[in-house]
What does this fold into?
Amino acid sequence: MNLSSVLSRPLLLMQLCVKTIFCFFNRILDRSSWTAEGLGIILAKTSFVLPLEEAKRGIKLLRDSGMEKINFSGGEPFLHEKGDFLGKLVQYCKQDLQLPSVSIVSNGSMIKEKWFQIYGDHLDILAISCDSFEETTNQLIGRTQGRKSHLDNLYKIQCWCQQYKVAFKINSVINTFNVDEDMTENIIQLNPVRWKVFQCLLIDGENAGEEALRNAERFIISDQQFQEFLDRHSSVTCLVPESNEKMRNSYLILDEYMRFLDCRDGRKDPSKSILDVGVSAAINFSGFDEKMFLKRGGKYVWSKADMKLEW
It folds into this structure.
């Protein structure tokens, strides 16, 4: 399946998660993004960073092949050049390529108000990873930010999103340490446009297996436990759940070399880079499941211009 043929269908606008064009080696869990748009615990393995113009060339190839939504994640995407590299890509996607939707997933630790002042107009959605509203639980998980409170920072970023007209979203990975928590009150108070709730997923070579940077097996919960968490939060209207089954093959993902990653066998096997062989040749090795993309609600209102939000 190639990207242009998928996008020719009027009901399907493809979400492309460009994972870590600016990918970094993360030494500890709290410097990484637990949920890179539904991939469970992801840790970058290299310090390679594409030159800015090469990154732009790759993104333009994707746009020319029919891409309409792009999501930048990591690792922590704001880490490189204090977010300026990321901001330039966001600006390029919206201003030059006029993509309908540009979004970011971040743990929030590196975000400053100045970034919103310079680049906020070009960003549709900012998703912040928050796995618990209990500081002690965040410490157990590894979601700490030194002396800063992760939760205080979350509320601060929510205010900046409101002030600079960026749709605010929350991503949570449900695992052994937070599965019994009731997050209803805090989610309602923060009022995100979407609350993506992921079941912790094992990826061989990433967070499982002999070559993994970290072993996440102690974080894994059963399908029944995940469902019980969803039932407890059934009153939260912005909740969007993703089980392991739904997320495994329903995302198009690029790594730092702009190679599609095939996750079908519980690993992340790379294609050749789109910079070398083009999008059509590389995407055949992506393992993308179009039916699961639709089943998990991959198509939604993702441009802030269409959300009719009250700023």
Observations:
- The CA atoms of residues 72 and 104 lie 5 Å apart.
- The first strand starts at residue 15 and ends at 19.
- The first helix runs from residue 3 to 7.
- Strands lie at 15-19, 69-73, 101-106, 125-129, 167-174, 194-199, 239-242, 252-254, 259-262, 269-273.
